[in-house]
Each structure stands twice: as structure tokens, then as C-alpha cells.
Design goal:
4 helices, 5-stranded mixed sheet, alpha+beta, globular, disordered N terminus
Length: 158
């Protein structure tokens, strides 16, 4: 393991805090770059405001080192599922810094979201990822069941 990679025991999974703004922005920009998604200051501002608003459904967890460096993030929310008439959890974003991958942080963040789901009575946590995201899918396949569902995006702006 690289000297910069902390031992997992030194990593804490915790809710995002106001003081996390700058390192969160850096991680979220890296996440957008990974998925080749444009990122602007306006998007960062809006997403951060959602995460900091206790009335907004979006929440965030981070993986922090002992020196308060952010190593990963997870954004999640309740999502109604009418077929079971219950909220389920939806994991929107999961990202681990490049030099921390393989250290167990991704698993720990998912387990953090799972703990929130258990507290709230959500029977399942769902997420999507790119089919090409092979490294992350190795972890996901160990923790969850891939579904037969196919995701579509309809561009309503055209």
C-alpha cells in the first residue's frame, strides 16, 4: 500500500459538515471528471446547498482521515417505491479518491448508507453505475445484486 493511503481503521465515515466545503468541491470535481460530466461553480453551489439543507432529501457522508482530509463521498436520498408503498434508499453518487481505491473506503461508505437505510426502515438501497466502471462493479457485485433493469434518460430540453 502507498504511504499516502491511510489504514482503513484511521478512516471515519461521517456526515458532511459545513467545514468540508473546499475538500468536498475537489472530490466532487474529480467525480464529475471520472464520468466526463461538465462541472461548474453553479452546479457545485447548488449541490452543496442541497446537502447542507436539512429540509432537502439529499444527504452526504464522507470518509475522512485522522487529519480531516476527505478521501471519499456518498450522496443519497429517500426514494418512494410505489410498488411496495415504501421509501427505499437511492445512492446517487459514490466516489473514492484515486489514490485511495482498493483501501475499503468504498465499501465503508456503502455500509454507512446501509446503516442509514436500516435506521429509516428502507428495505433496499439502489444505485446505478456505468457498465464500464469495472473496478467499482467488482465491489458492488460482492455487496448487492445486479438487476435486469435498464436506465433511460429522456432529454426534455430538445
Amino acid at each position: 500500500m502507498d504511504k499516502r493511503t491511510p489504514m482503513l481503521s484511521a478512516v471515519t465515515i461521517r456526515p458532511l459538515e459545513m467545514s468540508d466545503r473546499t475538500p468536498w468541491c475537489d472530490l466532487y470535481r474529480q467525480y464529475a471528471h471520472f464520468y466526463q460530466s461538465p462541472m461548474t461553480d453553479a452546479i457545485l453551489d447548488r449541490s452543496w446547498s442541497w446537502l447542507m439543507d436539512p429540509r432537502h432529501p439529499m444527504e452526504g457522508l464522507v470518509a475522512g482521515s485522522e487529519d480531516r482530509q476527505l478521501l471519499g463521498l456518498a450522496h443519497f436520498r429517500a426514494c418512494p417505491d410505489p410498488l411496495i408503498a415504501q421509501d427505499v434508499g437511492f445512492l446517487d453518487d459514490l466516489f473514492v479518491a484515486q489514490d485511495q481505491r482498493g483501501s475499503g473506503i468504498g465499501r465503508s461508505l456503502i455500509m454507512g448508507v446501509t446503516a442509514k437505510a436500516q435506521e429509516r426502515g428502507w428495505p433496499v438501497v439502489r444505485w446505478i453505475t456505468a457498465g464500464s466502471n469495472a473496478r467499482a462493479r467488482q465491489l458492488y457485485d460482492k455487496l448487492a445484486s445486479a438487476t435486469d433493469w435498464v436506465t433511460y434518460d429522456l432529454d426534455v430540453q430538445r
